Amino acid sequence: MGEGHKSTLPQPIEFPVIRSAYCDQETTNRVIAYLAAQTPDLIAQLTEEEKQPFPESRGARFREICYSIGAHIREAESRDVELPETRLALVDLLYELSRRIRKAQGLNEIPMLGKALAPSPQGPFPQLPVGSAQKLVDKLCTQIYEADRAHV
To answer: Which of 3, 20, 30 lies closest to 116 in space, CA to CA?
Structure first.
């Protein structure tokens, strides 16, 4: 890894996660500390991207760095660090990494976009309009979350 770069993340990192349904505080802290120690070049690149005038646009370079970080986590999982259970958890983990970098750099936090379908992968799922097959939709939502977990 790039020996010339040093992580700008403080050690140890203690920063409350926004949403813990997919990637809890302990997992977030452990994986981000691992990344800060093992991939300082990627952390430095992500830090530089976070400093760009319009990070909300999340351009191609930002996505490329996040993909590299995700690939590193997947490669390292069996040896060094436990991977979050689902792809949704990995997205939350990368969001938390971005938050911590921005906080360490004194930058404004970017608000989480979108709305969760359910408070947890187990539901409860939102009610549908009258006349729809609620049980079918609940089953479909459960299958989507389970498929996500199976393909990490």
So the answer is: 20
